[in-house]
Recover the amino acids of this structure.
């Protein structure tokens, strides 16, 4: 066998060139893709020796660009919330709030004076609860109406998106780019083979006329560089469809898939970044919490004032006027605590009313190409030169190995 290899060494050298070039093209492009997303955390000796995926490393900046794209070209916060009708949302909350009210009436009575409360006729207790429940829909509706009027001061879209795409949630940012650019990343890897093989044919011709070993790693550098560069160019250019000789149509691969990508992006945003659950959480636990609860609190106090004409004599008899104000605070506290508990009951209505997914899909799929490319381009734009240089370095390394084989 060794004699056969020796006898056919020159032929094998020629045949290995296009195969090796194709392998170098595939390897360098595959590594470039992996380096875009991984590792999630810096690996190596900080701050300079090592690597962190481009997207995780620039997560905050990329998340901010996503917000900019959403708010300037796709959706307006007030437009989305304008679709939510306070009267309908109040209906969704009415049943759980009635349960809260029933529990509250009994709790307040017992906290005030359990002995007297036990002696209070059931009909009286029911009447107190009934009167409060009568005021509840208006209370909720007023709170939600005021919330809509102050939506920009209360709802922080930017912080919500950045929170869901950075820090411990950076995997979601990776997922967003991977899902939206799945076919493009597959193309990048395979294009290394498509472009690398022809480079190997050229190398064969060069080797036939000029057999100098040091040219082999040089060709590796060229293959690594240009296969990465060409793949990135073909994804985003040309922006608009063009024709060769009026017959063959061609356009940037990502731009051709605008409808398909728009659907994927809209699904991710509507269900994982700005889902009804996360929107409600932003009101309840985020920067909006204080403002949201202040709105509820002020409206609860208004409702209590209306009920006081009937309820205060009973409560004052049971607890005395000195303790009345503290129990009013208890009522407010319990309602505030109940909001997170029962918020999920309105998520279905909220998602349907906002209709975020179809809105995003429609607008994103109709964006001009120069704006649409921003969706994926940000994953490469600033550091694509690093990926191209890494491709060159890998090509050089494989070329050295090939050179040793030739020698």
């Amino acid at each position: 066998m060794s004699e056969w290899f020796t006898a056919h060494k020159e032929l094998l050298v020629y045949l290995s060139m296009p195969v090796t070039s194709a392998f170098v093209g595939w390897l360098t492009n595959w590594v470039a893709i992996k380096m875009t997303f991984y590792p999630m955390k810096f690996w190596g000796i900080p701050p300079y020796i090592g690597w962190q995926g481009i997207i995780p490393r620039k997560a905050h900046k990329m998340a901010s660009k996503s917000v900019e794209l959403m708010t300037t070209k796709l959706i307006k916060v007030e437009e989305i919330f304008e679709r939510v009708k306070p009267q309908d949302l109040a209906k969704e909350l009415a049943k759980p709030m009635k349960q809260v009210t029933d529990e509250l009436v009994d709790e307040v009575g017992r906290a005030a004076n359990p002995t007297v409360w036990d002696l209070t006729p059931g009909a009286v207790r029911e009447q107190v609860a009934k009167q409060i429940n009568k005021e509840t829909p208006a209370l909720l509706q007023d709170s939600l109406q005021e919330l809509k009027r102050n939506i920009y001061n209360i709802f922080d879209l930017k912080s919500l998106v950045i929170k869901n795409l950075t820090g411990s949630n950076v995997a979601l940012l990776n997922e967003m780019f991977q899902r939206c650019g799945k076919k493009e990343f597959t193309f990048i890897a395979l294009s290394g083979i498509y472009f690398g093989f022809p480079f190997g044919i050229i190398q064969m011709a060069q080797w036939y006329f000029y057999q100098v070993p040091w040219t082999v790693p040089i060709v590796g550098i060229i293959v690594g560089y240009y296969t990465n560069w060409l793949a990135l160019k073909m994804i985003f250019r040309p922006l608009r469809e063009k024709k060769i000789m009026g017959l063959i149509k061609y356009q940037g691969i990502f731009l051709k898939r605008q409808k398909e990508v728009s659907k994927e992006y809209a699904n991710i945003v509507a269900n994982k970044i700005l889902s009804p659950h996360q929107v409600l959480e932003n009101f309840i636990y985020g920067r909006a919490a204080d403002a949201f609860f202040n709105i509820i609190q002020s409206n609860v106090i208004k409702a209590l004032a209306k009920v006081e004409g009937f309820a205060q004599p009973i409560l004052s008899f049971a607890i005395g006027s000195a303790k009345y104000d503290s129990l009013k605070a208890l009522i407010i506290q319990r309602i505030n605590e109940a909001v997170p508990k029962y918020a999920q009951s309105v998520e279905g209505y909220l998602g349907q009313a906002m209709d975020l997914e179809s809105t995003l899909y429609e607008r994103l799929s109709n964006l001009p190409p120069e704006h649409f490319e921003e969706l994926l381009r940000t994953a490469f734009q600033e550091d694509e030169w690093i990926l191209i240089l890494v491709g060159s370095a890998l090509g050089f390394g494989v070329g050295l190995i090939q050179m040793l084989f030739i020698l």
